[in-house]
């Protein structure tokens, strides 16, 4: 194992074991290196690597701290990686979204508040029956994000937020080229909202699946 990898593993073990907790300040570099049996240089490289993926927070002149380890913070690295997707992998991103988002929508049906339902309804009402493609896609992103947030699962929310980027361009392309894309999307959104209002988790799951699958089906036929 490379010395830097070994240093990363040792710091990771300290966090996983609870020796270092979220918000804790790491011991001084010289002390930590001696305690872990590492060179200061390999420790420094490990800290730099762990700060890039939001495990550690290096504060100039103050020290190095364990971050909150909040899922949204840690999964920022996923969004960075996703940005490097190729066009021929968009179908794979849609397939993953089709697995995760209906599950989140079903969970939201049992947890979403009346206030949140009213906010989603207001979004759709404001959009009207003949929005531009850009307006529709912006609303689509906010609509699904609001539902997923209501699922109560922060990890699922962060994963889906990170996966939304690659499919945004597909949704715009579909809106510009498929004749009934706008009306179909509006219909599916209202069907999802109705299922959520009825607290019908299975209907909400089904409509979310139909909604994502229709995008996926269109893309397959267009490639």
From TrEMBL:
Residues 1-69 form the HTH gntR-type domain. This is FadR/GntR family transcriptional regulator. It holds the Pfam family GntR. It comes from the Bacteria. It comes from Streptomyces neyagawaensis. The keyword Transmembrane helix does not apply. The keyword Signal does not apply. Keywords: DNA-binding, Transcription, Transcription regulation.
């Amino acid at each position: 194992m490379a010395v830097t990898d070994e240093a990363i593993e040792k710091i990771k073990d300290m966090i996983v074991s609870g020796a270092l907790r979220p918000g804790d300040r790491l011991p001084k570099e010289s002390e930590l290196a001696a305690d872990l049996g590492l060179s200061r240089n390999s420790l420094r490289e490990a800290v730099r690597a762990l700060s890039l993926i939001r495990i550690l927070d290096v504060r100039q002149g103050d020290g190095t701290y364990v971050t909150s380890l909040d899922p949204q913070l840690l999964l920022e690295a996923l969004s960075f990686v996703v940005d490097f997707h190729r066009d021929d992998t968009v179908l794979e991103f849609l397939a993953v979204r089709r697995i995760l988002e209906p599950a989140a929508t079903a969970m939201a049906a049992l947890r979403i508040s009346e206030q949140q339902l009213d906010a989603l309804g207001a979004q759709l009402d404001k959009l009207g029956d003949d929005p531009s493609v850009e307006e529709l896609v912006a609303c689509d992103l906010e609509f699904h994000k609001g539902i997923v947030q209501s699922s109560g699962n922060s990890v699922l929310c962060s994963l889906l937020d990170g996966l939304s980027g690659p499919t945004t361009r597909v949704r715009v392309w579909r809106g510009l080229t498929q004749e009934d894309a706008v009306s179909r999307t509006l219909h599916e959104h209202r069907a999802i909202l109705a299922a959520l209002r009825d607290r019908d988790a299975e209907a909400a799951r089904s409509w979310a699946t139909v909604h994502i699958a229709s995008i996926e089906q269109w893309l397959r036929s267009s490639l």
